[in-house]
Specification:
With 409 residues, this protein is an alpha+beta fold. It contains 10 helices and 18 strands. Strands 3, 4, 5, 6, 7, 8, 16, 17 and 18 form a 9-stranded mixed beta sheet that branches. α2 runs parallel beside α3. It is elongated. The model has no long low-confidence stretch (mean pLDDT 96). The structure holds glyoxylic acid and manganese (II) ion (MN) (2 copies). The site of glyoxylic acid has 3 residues, from loops.
């Protein structure tokens, strides 16, 4: 049995690091993330695990199996947040994994296979570019191009790695050998409202969406706001606004597709200057790469038409592209479903619209995920919340799943 209060208290305690009125700021590769990892290390040790930081800065807690050479059952998620994030996104997977292991330790259970609980670095890809960079190092999915990317204060990934005690020239040493993992599991909040709408606390995840992220640059002409008549302007921001509406309209045409502009900067940024240049982010997702790509291509076509009509230039730079949506392995889904039954919960299967560390494992070992209900479907928001009961229900399902996978050959 997992300990509901211990699990929830740890989530709340961890959530104080970087907490502000506007939500949690525990950005990837920041001092706050290091402080949070130090706290998580203590929890791992309390759960009876040995702990180390791998060459990419991920925190790894290990409970040894009776056969230390057996393949490892891995579970984990991330601690980093978006700007003004919540206390559950990612953290539940780490703290829930620790709780599942601690429940085994307390019950005197030692499984055949070792179990590892990992807190991955930089899942969000919100401070820099490119999600899952911590987990990507383990399975060889890391794009070294992002090393020189800078955050909004001009600090590069390389500099921040060094500040966290991680050698940027040796992050590849974290790569796991083929056959290392028997499976990878991840407990996560749903971050949407499907489970809540169905009155369910837990869901069995069927697969993870694929994303494109990029940056759009529109260049017009900066000019005087008082002396440039409306019909003689090359206003990059007005063009960007029209492009965003085209994207929104296009995305509505595809099943399960979503498209978001979350970040925008106008230059030179003066109240009395017609904006000469605008940069904005794009994030487009679907379960199927073909549909996502069709949507992306059509959006680019529609933006081109807007920019031509307005006499401004358009440049679309793709910064991250998942090759395909990642299905959860059928037999792992079945074990998670069985574990729901063991925990007295109905079985409900659903896809994930969010990206997760587990997607980097889909081509490396069998992968599966467990979702729990998010209050009001909110996430990436300071009001993100899941009840202690739902957190514990998810951790209980994870416990049974890990136990089965780690006990059997
Ligand atoms: C991660 O939270 C993502 O899906 O953007
Ligand atoms: Mn997450
Ligand atoms: Mn997130």
């Amino acid at each position: 049995m997992v300990n509901k209060d211990r699990l929830f208290n740890r989530l709340m305690e961890l959530g104080q690091i970087g907490n502000t009125e506007d939500g949690v700021y525990c950005m990837a590769l920041s001092p706050e993330e290091n402080e949070a990892h130090a706290q998580v290390k203590k929890y791992m040790e309390e759960a009876g695990m040995t702990v180390h930081m791998d060459a990419a800065g991920n925190l790894v807690g290990r409970k040894e199996g009776t056969d230390p050479n057996a393949s490892v059952v891995m579970t984990g998620s991330h601690i980093d947040t978006v700007y003004g994030g919540g206390m559950f996104d990612g953290r539940l997977g780490v703290i829930g994994g620790i709780e599942a292991v601690q429940a085994m330790t307390e019950a005197g259970i030692q499984t055949k296979h070792p179990i590892e609980v990992i807190a991955y670095r930089d899942e969000e890809g919100t401070r820099f570019v490119g999600s899952y960079s911590g987990a990507g190092h383990l399975t060889g999915g890391y794009d070294h191009g992002i090393m020189e990317h800078a955050d909004k204060d001009g600090k590069t990934v390389r500099e921040c790695l060094k500040e966290c005690g991680i050698d940027p020239d040796h992050v590849d040493d974290a790569k796991l050998p083929e056959g290392y993992a028997k499976a990878h599991l991840e407990l996560h909040i749903e971050q949407g409202a499907v489970l809540e709408s169905k009155g369910l606390s837990v869901g069995v995840v069927t697969g993870i969406c694929c994303q494109i992220r990029g940056e759009v640059t529109i260049k017009g002409t900066a000019s005087h706001a008082g002396t440039t008549p409306m019909d003689l302007r090359k206003d990059a921001l007005a063009a960007a606004a029209e492009c965003m509406l085209e994207i929104e309209d296009e995305a509505k045409k595809y099943p399960q597709a979503v498209a978001t502009v979350g970040k925008i900067t106008a230059f030179p940024g003066g109240v009395n200057v017609v904006p000469g240049e605008v940069k904005f982010s794009i994030d487009m997702r679907n379960q199927k790469a073909a549909l996502r790509d069709a949507m992306f291509d059509k959006c680019v076509e529609r933006m081109k038409a807007v920019c031509e009509k307005r006499g401004v230039s358009l440049d679309v730079n793709v910064l991250m592209k998942d090759d395909e949506g990642k299905p959860c392995a059928d037999h792992i889904q079945d074990i998670v479903a069985e574990s729901c039954e063991k925990a007295g919960l109905p079985v409900f299967r659903m896809p994930s619209g969010a990206g997760h560390d587990s997607s980097t494992f889909a081509d490396f070992c069998p992968m599966g995920m467990i979702f729990i209900r998010s209050k009001d479907g909110l996430s990436h928001n300071k009001d993100e919340y899941s009840s202690p009961e739902d957190c514990a229900a998810g951790a209980e399902v994870l416990y049974h799943t890990l136990l089965k996978l780690a006990s059997e050959d």
